[in-house]
Design goal:
By secondary structure, the chain is α+β, with helices and mostly antiparallel strands. It has a domain of about 210 residues: 2-Layer Sandwich (Heat Shock Protein 90), CATH 3.30.565. It is built from eleven helices and 18 strands. The strands form four sheets. A six-stranded antiparallel sheet has the order 7-6-11-10-9-8. It has a five-stranded antiparallel sheet with strand order 2-1-5-4-3. About 30% of the residues are buried. The structure holds adenosine-5'-diphosphate (ADP). Adenosine-5'-diphosphate binds next to helix 10 and helix 11.
Length: about 575
Amino acid sequence: MSRQLIKFATYLVLFVLGLGLTHTLTQEQLLEQNQERTARHATALNDYIHSEFTRFSTIVSFLSSSALVHQALQYDQQDNAVDRYLSDVQRASGASDVYLLNAQGTVVASSNWHLPHSYKGNNFAFRPYFARAMAGETVTDFALGQRSMRRGFYFSKAVDFAENGRGVIVLKVNASKFETDKARLDTGEESHFVLLDANDVVLLSDHPDWQLHATKALSGEAQEQLAQSQQFLGQTINPLGWHWLANDGQIIAEQRRYLVSASTLEGTSYRLLMLSPIVPFNEVHAARLGLAMLLLLLVIALVEYLSVKVAGYRQLLFSQRTLEEQVQERTRELEQAQDALIRATKLATIGQLSASVNHEINQPLSAMSAYVAACKRLLMRSEPEKAMENLQLIEQLIRRVHAIAGQLKSFSQKRPVKMQSISLQQSVQNALLVVGPELNKHHVSVHESGLEVSVWVDPYQFEQVLVNLLSNACHAMEHCQNKWLRLEASSNESKVYLSIIDNGPGIDQHALSTIFEPFYTTKSEHGLGLGLSISKQIIESFQGNLSAHNHRDGGAEFLLSLHQQEPQS
Ligand code: ADP
C-alpha cells in the first residue's frame, strides 16, 4: 500500500472516530440534561397535584365542620340555602360538584341543585368514598361519574352533627382539570405524564389514548376487585403494553423510547410518572457534529501542513549537510589541484631552465675532468703541491654542482608551508642558483641593491616566485642587445618593497590587466601561463602584494610588497 493511501486511511479513521466520540459524548450529555429536566418537571407536577389535592381535602374538612352543612342534615332546608352555599364553594374552588349525603348515602344538598342533572335525591351509598368516609376516613378517591362517565377525583369526609348524627360531604373534581393545568406547567410538548393507581391504571394523563388503560396487564385479583368496587363502572381496562428497560429508568411506549422520572404522590397510593422522549439525533447533535467535523478537518489540515513543513525542513537540513560535504570535498580537490598546479609550474620552470642547468653542471664537470687529468700528470711528475691546488679547485667545483643540484631538488619538492622572517639577500641567492645558469647563458648582468633586509615569507614558495620573475625577465630580454636586471629593495618600518626591473620590451599595454590571469602566455612553446598567477597567489598568502608596470626607461617592472615580520593582523 502506498504511503499516501495509508495516510489517507489514518486520517479517515481519525475523522470517523472523532465524529463517533462527539456523537456519543453529545448523546450522554443530552441524556443527562434530559434526566435533570424530566426530574425537575416531575417534581413541579407532583407538587402541583399534591397541593391541589391538599387544597380540596382542606375544603372538604372545612365544610364538614360548617354549621350550615350540619343544619342541612338536621333539618329540611329553607330556600335552598345550603345548596347555594355548596354552589358558591364549587365555583370558588374549581371543583365540578360539591354535595352532601345523609347517613343512608342519599344526596340532601348539592351544588348542582338547580340543574337538570341535579344529584339531589340520588343515592351514592355504593360508592367507596361514602362507606370509607362514614368509617371516619378522610378520602381521596378516583371514579367515573355515573351519568357523565367522566373521570373524577372524589374528596369526602364524615360530617358529625348533633349526637351520633353523621353524613358525608363530597367534593368532586374533573380529572381533565389536572390534565389541562399540566399544559400550563410547561413541561415540554413532547413529554407526557401519567398518574397511576396501585394497579398501575392510568387515572390521569395528558395523552388521551393512555387514559383508563393499565401500563401492564391487570392481575385476575385486581380485575375482580375493580368489578366489585365499580370504580370504573365495569369498563374494561386494557393494557398499554409498555416495556420497561432494565435499570436505567427508560421505557418503550408505542415504539418510542422515553426517559422516566417516577414519584409517589404524598398521602396517596398514587404514583406519578413523567415521560420524556429520548431523541437519538436532534439539531444539537447536528450542530456539534458539524463543528466537530470542521475542527477535525482543521486539525488534519494543520497536521498535514506541519508534516509537509517538517519534511521540507528535514530535506533542507539534509541537502544543506550534503551541500556542506560537497563544498568540503570540492575544496579538498581544489587544494589538491592547486598543489598539483604549483608543482607542475615548478617542473615547467625547471624544464625551461634545464638546458642552461645542464650547461651549468656540464661546465664544472668538464673543468673537473681537465683538473683530474692535470692532477694525474702533476702527481706523475711528483709535484704534489700543485696537484693539491688542482684538487682544491675540483673540491670547489663539486660544491658548486652540489649546490645547484640541491637547489633544484628543494625547488621541485613539495613542502609544508612554514612562514618565517628570512634574509631577502639569501632568498635571492638561492633563486639565482636555479636561474643563474640561464642568465649567464644569455649574458644578463644582475645588479642588486638594498637587499640586506628580512622578509616574512615561506622560503621555498618565495624562492619559486623569484625564480619565476627572474626567468620571465630573462626570456623577455632574449632579443635585446644589452641585457641587465636590477633587483632594488627599499623598506620602511614594517614593509619591504622589492622591484625587479629588466630592460626588455616591457609588457603590452592591453596585457597589463590580464597578465596575472591563469593561462595567459605569449610563449608559443614551453609557456603554461601559470607562473604569474601562482606567484601573485603566493605573495598574497604572505599578506603582501605583487603588481606589474612598465618602467619609465622601457622594460618591465614587477613590484613586490612584503612584511618584514609577522603582521599583527
Ligand atoms: P609563462 O611564462 O608560462 O608564459 P607567466 O604567467 O609567467 O607564464 O607569464 C605570462 C606572460 O606574461 C608571459 O607569457 C609574457 O607574455 C608576460 N611577461 C611575464 N614577464 C614579463 C616581462 N618581464 N616582460 C615582458 N612580458 C612579461
